[in-house]
User: What shape does this take?
Amino acid sequence: MTSTPTGSAHRDGYVPFPADAAAQYRAAGFWAGRPLGDLLRASAHRYPQRPALLDAEGSHSYADIDAAADRMAHGLLALGIAPGDRVVVQLPNVPEFMTVLFGLLRAGIIPVLSLPAHRRAEIEHLARLSDAVGYIVADRAGDFDYRELASTVRDAVPSLRHVLVLGEPGPFTDLTSVPRDGGELPEIDPGDIALMLVSGGTTGLPKLIARTHDDYVYNATTSAEVCALTEQDVYLATLPAAHNFPLACPGIFGTVGVGGAVAFVGDPSPESAFAAIERHRVTVTAVVPPLAQLWCAATEWEEADLSSLRLLQVGGARLAEVNAKEVTPALGATLQQVFGMAEGLINYTRLDDPAELLHTTQGRPLSPADEIRVVDGDGNDVAPGAEGELLTRGPYTIRGYYRAAEHNARAFTPDGFYRSGDLVRRLPSGHLVVSGRIKDVINRGGENVSCDELEEHLLAHPAVRHAAAVGLPDAVLGEKVCAVLVVDGEMPTLAEIKSFLTARGLATYKLPDVLRRSDKLPITAVGKIDKKALRAES
Ligand code: OOB
Assistant: This one.
C-alpha cells in the first residue's frame, strides 16, 4: 500500500543523532515515532469540527484543513517534486502558511523555512546549499516584489525548477492551482529530516538546521504541555511563522497537536495585533522584547479587548526585569520568558514559577533529558552559579548544521554538545539567566545579525578598507547595528552604505543603524579586531 520510498540524497551532509542516543530517546518515549504531519491528522480525527484556523473569512475546521493539506501534498507531488526534495518557503504570516507547511510535510518534501525579510543574498545561499528544487513565495509585500527575487534566484540556482506564487503569479505557477485529489501519500520515516530552519548565524552565511519529525514533534508537544495548551486555546502567530519560536515553541505545531486554533497576523503592531486578539479571542502569543514593551505601552491608548489573552511568551533576546514586570499589569496575561534557539534547546519559565523567577530568569530547559553544561574559556565546568558558556545536548538539539562540516568542528564538542555562544548563570532551581554572549552576533530586538556576514558585505564596498560590526545599546531594540569603517578617501554616508548593502541583496534587518569612521581598528593581543574596545569607543 505504501508508495514511493523517500530517496536519501537529502541526507548528504546531515549529521544524525548517534544510534545509542537515538535508541535512548526512543526507549524513554521522548521520540514518539510520529511524523509531524500526524499532529494535524490526529486532531482532525479527534476534533473534526473544531476550528483549526481562524482568518478574515471566519473559521476553518480541522476536517477542512486536514483535507486541504492532503490536497496540497498530492498537488506538489504531481508537479514532480519528490519526497526528500527541498523547497524554500518564504511566506508572510498568512493563513495559507498552514496548508503549504502541512502539505509539504505530508508529501515528505522538506521545507526550508526562510524569513520574509531575507533577500537575494540569503535566499540564493539557502537554495544552493539545500539544492532546492522549488521556491514558494507570496507575490509581494509592501513595495517588495518577491517574483522579481524569484526570477533572480531561479537564474542563479540551477536546481530550482518550480516557483509557486501565492497571489498574482506573474510568469510563475499560481499556488492555488496546485492542490489536487490523490490516493496514498508517501510513508514518512519519523527519524528522517522533516524541515530545515535557518540559524540566526554566528559566522559567515546563515546555516541550515535540519530537524527530524521525531525531534520536532517532541519539541512542539512538550512545549504545549509546559504552556498547558488545550483544544480551547487560540494561538496567534505574531512573529514570522517560519521562526522556531512561533512555529513550534509551542506555536503552530504545538497548538495543532492539541486541537487548538491558529490565527496569523501579518503586522505585529499593537493596532493590528490587538485587533486580531480581540476578534479571534486569542489566548496565547509570542513576541520579542521590543514588541512586548510596545504592546504594554500601547494599552494606554489602544482600546481593544485583550481579556482573552492568558499567556504572553517573550523571548529571542534578553527581556529586562523592568519590562518583565510590566507585562501582567498592562496586558492581564501571565508572562513566560523563553530562551530558545533554532538549534534546539528551549528554556521556559513555568506558568507557576514565583514572580521573582518569571521576572529575572530566562527559564529552565524544556526536557528532563536536556543536558546543560556551563563552561569557562578552557571548556571546564564553572562552579555552580558562576557565569560561563552554555553547552547543550538533548533529544531535540541538533548534532551538527546541515552541510557545514568545517563549521561543525568548532560549533559542537567532540561528544556532541552544541556550543551556544551564550553566557549564562545557572540557579539552583535549574533556571538560566542569560548574562551575555561570546559569539560575534548582534541581537537586534530578537533578530540575530552575524557580524562576520555583515563585515564581508561591507568590505565589498570600494571605499572600505577595514570594517567591523558591533552592537551598541539601544533603548528599544536592546542592541542596534553599528558599522565601524576604515575608508580610503571620503566616508560614505549611512544612506549610501544601506543602499549598497541592499543592492547586494542583504536582508533589511542586517543593515547598519549607525556608521562610524575610524582611522585604525583596535586589535587584541591575538590580532583579532578588539570589539570590546570598539564598542567602548562608539
Ligand atoms: C530564538 O532562536 P534563534 O535561533 O533565532 O536565536 C537564538 C539566540 C540564542 O542563542 C541567544 O543568543 C538569543 O538568540 N536568545 C536570547 C533569548 N532567546 C534567544 N537571549 C537572551 N534572552 C532570551 N530569552 O531566538 C528562539 C527560538 C525558540 C524560542 C525562542 C527564541
Remarks:
- The chain has a mean pLDDT of 96.
- The first helix runs from residue 19 to 27.
- Residues 200, 244-245, 249, 315-318, 337-342, 346, 362, 420, 422, 434, 437, 443, 448 surround OOB (CB under 6 Å).
- The CA atoms of residues 63 and 156 lie 40 Å apart.
